[in-house]
TrEMBL record:
Keyword Flavoprotein: yes
KW Flavoprotein (keyword) present: yes
Requisite cofactors: FAD
GO biological process, one term: steroid metabolic process
Region (Disordered): 96-124
SUPFAM superfamilies cross-referenced by the UniProt entry: FAD/NAD(P)-binding domain, Succinate dehydrogenase/fumarate reductase flavoprotein, catalytic domain
Protein name: FAD-dependent oxidoreductase
Organism, as annotated: Amaricoccus solimangrovi
Molecular function per GO: oxidoreductase activity
Lineage: Bacteria, Pseudomonadati, Pseudomonadota, Alphaproteobacteria, Rhodobacterales
UniProtKB keywords: FAD, Flavoprotein, Oxidoreductase
Any one Pfam family match given in the protein's UniProt record, by short name: FAD_binding_2
Domain FAD-dependent oxidoreductase 2 FAD-binding span(s) in chain numbering: 7-468
């Protein structure tokens, strides 16, 4: 069994792991990063790459702390906001480009009209204390040097900085367990599998777990979310090993039911879902009984998927799994019904007029509502009545679910279309509980010596997600954990 020794060993090579490695190396430590796949980046590389700026730190702290519903200590929220305030300078000093998004202007009203799901400028919870302390989102513009934007540009910057330092990175290596000294309780290293053989690595100062959440682990989803759902994240990367390994050495868990979950379209040819993002107003969403259940114009991009998990607790059925989006020819021609510029499946070739997914059978088409209902296995009479009721609501201004006429258009001219939509995880929040310094703690709140956490593996956020914060948290918590492992603070 081979043996290697480093000051800091980092498990997981996404945004949090890369930030931790950079910070630990800059603090003078010898650093090893271990990644189970053949390349790094994970969710960081395929995401939109939004980082929240700080307009008023105290108000922002109040807001985030309130959204955590008492599950996160205020000190951790303070550390996060302080880290966000320093983050743009840290990124720019390392070659990253960022710009603020004017559509996120403080106090701007929620955009009316398409696309749906929508986003609320500033925060998803403008009525919660401290909301006016939330600053604009920073986005990653196209980098003229490499032509990359969004998450791809962010990851390129991180990878370049890791590569320019004396940081060892080994890929296609799966960590199996942590080693802990039986006398002191200190985590001293780990055992991993590489090429079918076990290797043992010793960490003199600390291990940083930054291996992501469990959005590709159906068993953990069933245990903590109640149902296994689809994921838009890179397939099979976030499978929860960090959670299990931390539990094995006595870690407490937090925020296990917290998720960022929208709506997605699942097709046989792709494991990850396509994010639902419709461009015109002429559509409705119905359950398996062919009935509407919400104002579709108010679907939220980071939590809309939670609505689809509504369960009939008398019949013990989930009548909205799947739900169906019904639309007409005008909406079909208005633009793709998915987000084509981000996500894992950007190479699918989804056409602007949705003709390709129709040809492939991903979207069902029919000349009449009755024919569409039959193809989707929905009750024809119920679906026809639902659409008639929706159209009458537009005419009378009295939609049964309060959908305003400005955000609706009649479904009347065929062909007609339908597609199944499912709850779709962008990421989970739960994992080992950590302190403001990134120390993973036991059930009594005592730090486990030598063990640190970063990123979505134990995010400070719980079930109320304000939008645009997990990405920044990967950078901030990674920097904190990487430095803390060496007894330092981020530079």
């Amino acid at each position: 069994m081979a043996e290697n020794e480093y000051d800091v060993v980092i498990v997981g090579y996404g945004g949090a792991g890369a930030a931790a490695a950079i910070e630990a190396a800059d603090a003078g430590g010898s650093v090893l990063v271990i990644e189970k796949f053949g390349d790094g980046g994970g969710t960081t590389r395929m995401a939109g790459g939004n980082i929240r700026s700080v307009l008023d730190a105290e108000k922002m702290i109040d807001h985030f702390h309130a959204l955590c519903d008492g599950t996160t200590d205020r000190e951790s929220v303070v550390a996060h906001v302080e880290g966000l305030a320093r983050l743009p300078d840290w990124i720019e000093r390392r070659g990253g480009l960022m710009r603020s998004d004017p559509s996120e202007k403080l106090g701007a009203p929620r955009k009316s009209g398409p696309p749906y799901p929508g986003a609320t400028p500033g925060t998803g919870f403008p009525g919660v204390v401290g909301a006016d302390g939330i600053g604009l989102r920073y986005r990653w513009p196209k980098n003229p040097r490499n032509g990359l934007s969004r998450g791809a540009a962010a990851w390129a910057m991180l990878a370049e900085n890791v590569g320019s330092r004396k940081i060892d990175v080994i890929t296609e290596t799966a960590v199996k367990r942590l080693n802990r000294d039986g006398f002191s309780g200190r985590v001293t290293g780990l055992v991993a599998e590489q090429g079918g053989k076990e290797i043992e690595v010793r960490a003199k100062q600390g291990i940083v777990l930054s291996s992501g959440g469990f959005s590709w682990n159906p068993e953990l989803m069933r245990q903590w979310l109640g149902v296994a759902v689809h994921s838009a994240a890179p397939p099979h990367r976030n499978t929860g090993e960090g959670i299990v390994m931390a539990q094995a050495v006595g870690a407490a868990l937090w925020h296990m039911s917290g998720v960022v979950m929208s709506m997605g379209i699942a097709v046989p040819e792709y494991e990850a879902t396509f994010s639902f993002h419709i461009k015109e107003r002429g559509f409705i969403m119905v359950d398996r009984l062919g009935k509407r259940f919400c104002d579709e114009s108010k679907l939220a991009g980071h939590s809309g998927g939670l609505l689809l998990d509504g369960r009939d607790h008398h019949a013990a059925l989930r009548r909205r799994l799947p739900s169906y989006v019904i639309f007409d020819e005008a909406t079909r021609l208005a633009g793709p019904i998915i987000a084509t510029e981000r996500g894992f499946n950007t190479d699918a070739g989804w056409s602007e007029d949705n003709s390709m997914p129709i040809e492939k059978g991903w979207i069902t088409s029919a000349s009449s509502i009755a024919e569409l209902a039959a193809k989707l296995d929905l009750p024809a009479d119920a679906l026809a009545e639902t659409i008639d009721s929706y159209n009458r609501g537009i005419e009378t201004g009295a939609d049964p679910f309060g959908r305003g006429a400005a955000n609706a258009a009649p479904i009347e001219k065929g062909p007609f279309y339908g597609v199944a939509v499912w709850p779709t995880l962008y990421n989970t929040q739960g994992g080992p509980r950590r302190t403001a310094r990134g120390e993973i703690v036991d059930p009594w709140g005592a730090p486990i010596p030598g063990l640190f956490g970063a990123g979505e593996l134990g995010s400070i956020f719980n079930t109320l997600y304000p939008g645009g914060v997990n990405y920044g948290e990967a950078f901030v918590s990674g920097r904190v954990a990487g430095a803390a492992a060496l007894g330092a603070t981020p530079k």
